[in-house]
Structures are given as C-alpha cells and as structure tokens.
Amino acid sequence: MKRALLSAYRVRGPAYAVAALALIAVAVTSGIPLGDGARQGRGVIAVIALGVLAVSVLLVFVGPRLIPTRHPATLASPVSGRWLGMNSPATKVPSHGIRLYGQAFAIDLVHEPVDTRRPAFGDGPVMRRARDYPAFGQPVRAMIDGTVVRATDWRRDHRARSGGLALVYMVIEGAVRELGGPGFILGNHVTIRGANGEYATVAHLQRGSLAVTVGATVRAGEQIARCGNSGNSSEPHVHAQLMDRVSPWTAQGLPMTFTGITLDDGPAHVTALPRTGQHMTASVSRE
Predict the structure, then answer these.
(1) Residue 120: burial class (beta carbons within 10 Å; 0-12, 13-18, 19+)
(2) Is 43 helix (H, G, I), strand (E, B) or coil?
(3) What's the pLDDT tens digit per position in 213-254?
(4) Cβ distance 226 to 243 under 8 Å?
(5) Which residue of 58, 151, 190, 278 has the fewest C-beta atoms within 10 A of its own C-beta?
(6) What is the dihedral of CA 184, 95, 140, 202, to 10 degrees?
(7) Domain 73-282 is classified in which CATH homologous superfamily?
(8) Tens digit of each residue's pLDDT (9 = 90 or more) over 129-143
(9) For residues 223 and 275, what is the distance between their CA atoms, to the nearest angstrom?
C-alpha cells in the first residue's frame, strides 16, 4: 500500500496537469452543441478529471509523510565568490513552498560581491535589464562528477521583476508557464547524473551559454554554463537542486550541502548550505 501511494505521489504533478487541461477543454466546449452521447462523454471526462484533481491534492498532504529520510549529499558549490542564499532548505522544507519538480531541497543563490552593488527591489525601473545584476553572466559549475543528461539554453533571458507591479505580472506569468511544464519554470538548465543515481540540476541559465552537451562527462567544479534570467525567475540567480529521477515531473528532491564554503564572511570552511538571507563564499574546487 505504501509503495502504491508513493508511486501515485510521484505522478501527482502530471496527473494534476492532465486533469486541469481536461477541465479547461470541458469548459471551453460547454457552449458547443453536441449530441447526447458526446454530452455524456464530456460529463464523464469532467467527473474523472475532478476526481483526479482531488486525489492529487490529497497526495500533496499524505505523500511527504511516506518519503524516507535521507542524509544530505555533499556537493561542490555551483558558483564561486560571495552569494546570498534565498529560498533555502536550511531555513525551511520544502524550500520553495512546494515539493513538485524535485524542488523540496532546492536553493536559490543571488550574487552579492562585496565591491559591486546589487540593485534593490523597488529601486529604479519596474523591470530592470538582466545585465544590471552582478549575477548575470557569472560562471555556473557542475556540483557532481557525472554525465550530462539534459542541457538546454534556447530560452531568452527576460527582464528582472524588480517592482511591485512586475511581481503581480510574474504571478500571472508563472501560472501560464506552469501549463508548459517544468522546462518553462526552470528555464535553461543542465542536469548531471552521478554515479549513485542522483541527478544534480542548475537552472535559470543564460541563453547560449552552455559549455557542455548531452552525453559529456564532467567533473565537479567544471564550468558548464553562465548565470542568466530564464524561466520563472525574478532576477538573475542560480537555482540548484538534487533529485532522484531525471525528470522533474516525477522526481523527489534530495537533501544536499555544499563543501568548502564559508558563511557570513567568516574564515572557517564548512559543509553546509546558507540559510535564507545568509551569505556564503565559495572558491573554485576544480577547473
């Protein structure tokens, strides 16, 4: 029973998406005259879709209690220099408010070098240029040794959502992106399969910045792309996560830490993640 529930929990995302699209189709065609058989079929589809939606929502609350506890994996930092932790699993889990798309233990990293000012929210244009942020174009590195199994960099780098009205727009935009699936949420991204069957993903990469292709073998610390502002992103930053499946549709997020970083501009090297609002500094482990 537990195994069946966990299997159902894995596919709650695509099941919910299909059911939602079915209900949209039913609503759109509700004004179209149909024969008795077609009307009955439409009604059956609506009932089934509502049932699937209900079960999917129920699994959101039941599923996490069934997931086995794992010890955090130790990874290389995907960035070098001084970065601010945001939406960190060191502060709360799930870090991004949801476990969908393997994001339960994901972290966002925003570049804040000591000698360069990062534009403040609400200061200046509502939608700033991505290149106005120090993170834009910064090297992004492999977190693990392994093989590249997914690599995409065709999506554009949009302007930052740097004001209140822009955030309202982002909420609406995000709902539309959800219809396209996780690729439109992650934007340009690279996924690497490790020797233990884990999958490390870095996302929101710069358009045209990939330094690797699918099938390439990489080492932790090797540059694989540059930071951008593609996908569901409010400003240029690096989104990093570890998963147990290659597809974000069915993956569960795995806990992780970064090795050899310092926190709060301190001298001691630790294996950890920065909390939300905490700075970390990382050096390049390998080239």
Answers:
(1) exposed
(2) helix
(3) 999 999 999 999 999 999 999 999 999 999 999 999 999 999
(4) no
(5) 58
(6) -40
(7) Glucose Permease (Domain IIA) (2.70.70.10)
(8) 999 999 999 999 999
(9) 25
